[in-house]
Design brief:
Length: 426
């Protein structure tokens, strides 16, 4: 398909589950549906290396791994995405000692612009792998991924509301002392709905199906949907509605296999913007966003979500080179969101914020380049694997720019200088 599209002068994009909020996949060229690529190709429980086809959904992957006695090291709170799409956009969960999903990739099989099938590993092409792990689909069509998994484990999750002041005062402690920590904050309230999670090897104790349905369907989705519709119709009620929602979040515990705890059911539609900033600025940034909403009296019905992740080394990872706080804001579908999102983005710019590649943002290649130390090295790999820009679309051109062949020479010059210095030292 790739070779044929190139011969016909058409661009190519690959689609996973369509979970992204952006136009990252949209094309008027050839759209490759990868949903049929969902097999487990190889698994070694001893080493934890598992190779799967790239279109497999995360919820399917979790079940396959569990049957092998394995699990993902970490995972986000949505499991509907295709693996390749989740990797391409640097999808993440929470846990200050754990990287995002792409940090566990040991190898990738990619169909490049020439139609060649290449295997990228740290041994064969280290820069290629670091670029492909988070690529926004700009390097080719990923068909298979080798992951470093871990032995299956149990998660013990404790959900409870805490005073916002206490949560913010203890933010670094809570993020550092727990295997996984996150919280939700509704504007116009002073309560944080926290989730603290511990990893262990105790037996799973699955929650009764009726209890899970009650929590997820009735409270987290139907109640939220109903209240959101009322708030959309009467904006002046939003502060009181938010306080009602916050008060409905009670205390609860859950102990089960990891893949059944990480993800939650989401049926209410919304728009979302998310930024990765240095963890040290988490409290200040959150307080500024809260002030933005309340000072402007914005009708924001959905909570802010705050999560944490370890630094990693994928060139386009929002967590590249720094311990990271992820701050996400949302707005209910059908309500104006751009003015709020742009206001939040201006705040995030002050902290060298990097947007989630699959969620709404207003950055361009010109504004993003200086925020990624590995930008030129990514562009050098892109120029090598896709020299004529076969895998571009409006989103790629807007956020990454056109293929930059000067990046290759820049990297070669840099490597030459490094070699000369090493020779001088010798």
């Amino acid at each position: 398909m790739v070779t044929d599209a190139a011969a016909r002068g058409l661009k190519v994009r690959a689609a996973g589950s369509g979970h992204s909020f952006t136009d990252a996949v949209c094309t008027d060229g050839v759209l490759v549906d990868t949903s049929g690529l969902r097999r487990v190709l190889a698994a070694d429980p001893g080493s934890g290396l598992v190779t799967v086809e790239a279109g497999i959904k995360l919820h399917e992957l979790g079940k396959h791994l569990a049957r092998l006695g394995l699990a993902l090291e970490n995972q986000g709170d949505i499991d509907a995405q295709a693996l390749a799409g989740a990797l391409a956009t640097a999808t993440h969960g929470t846990g200050a000692r754990f990287g995002n999903l792409s940090s566990r990739v040991a190898g990738m099989r990619v169909v490049t612009a020439s139609g060649e099938v290449v295997e990228l590993t740290a041994d064969t092409d280290p820069d290629g792998l670091r670029a492909a792990r988070v690529s926004v689909g700009a390097l080719g069509v990923v068909t298979a991924v080798t992951l470093r998994t871990v032995p299956q484990y149990t998660l013990h999750r404790h959900d409870r509301p805490l005073p916002l002041g206490e949560t913010l005062a203890r933010l670094d402690e809570l993020a550092g002392a727990n295997d996984h920590f996150e919280f939700f904050l509704w504007p116009y309230t002073r309560t944080a709905a926290t989730k603290t999670t511990r990893r262990g090897q105790e037996p799973a104790r699955p929650q009764a199906s009726w209890k899970r349905r009650l929590s997820e369907d009735l409270i987290e989705n139907r109640l939220l949907e109903t209240i959101s519709r009322v708030g959309r119709a009467r904006n002046s009620l939003v502060p009181r509605l938010n306080r009602l929602l916050a008060s409905s979040m009670g205390e609860g515990r859950l102990q089960d296999h990891a893949y059944r705890v990480y993800a939650t059911k989401r049926t209410v539609r919304f728009n979302e913007l998310e930024y990765a900033i240095p963890r040290v600025h988490a409290r200040e940034a959150l307080e500024r966003v809260l002030d933005l909403v309340e000072r402007r009296k914005l009708p924001i019905l959905f909570p802010f979500e705050t999560r944490f992740a370890a630094a990693d080394d994928a060139f386009l990872s929002p967590a590249y080179g720094r311990d990271t706080c992820y701050l996400a804001v949302h707005q209910y579908t059908g309500m104006e969101f751009e003015s709020f999102f742009r206001g939040v983005e201006t705040i995030m710019d002050d902290y060298d914020g990097r947007p989630h590649w699959g969620k709404r943002h207003y950055q361009t290649a010109a504004t993003l380049r200086g925020r990624y130390p590995g930008w030129d090295r990514f562009q050098a790999v892109r120029a090598r694997l896709d020299p004529h820009g076969l895998f571009t679309n409006d989103y790629v051109l807007r956020t990454l720019g056109p293929v930059d062949h000067t990046a290759v020479q820049s990297i070669m010059d840099e490597q030459g200088r490094s070699s000369a210095l090493e020779a001088d030292d010798a």
